[in-house]
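Memo to structure team: turn this sequence into structure tokens by end of day. - J.P.
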Amino acid sequence: METSKTIAGLIGPTLIAIGAALLVNADIIQSFAEEIARARALIFLSGVLLLVAGLAIVRAHNIWSGGWPVLVTVLGWIAILGGLTRMFFTNQVAMLLDMFAHSNGLMLASVVILLALGGFLSFKAYARH
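Reply from structure team:
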């Protein structure tokens, strides 16, 4: 459980910060996403970093039972898959990112998910229980 709380204590606030930054910078996110979609090397590099982060999580925390800690493991596997996807399908990811840049609904849904996940993980990590 201590490893779960440690990793959740890193992921939770990070997701909250990303979600909040997207909200604060909502007026420039579209142009930001368009720029990243054109920077294929950045997409590939972010895939490498996401793969390493996901592998680190799964190596330290491959727990598939016991309630909320499973979410930490699932996020690790999602990071691995997301990293591999960015590395092997860079052009397709760029096209998806460009579509994302032009959809306010997708951005808002992403922000809500990031804030909810981040809030939940932060609560689990920093609550007294």
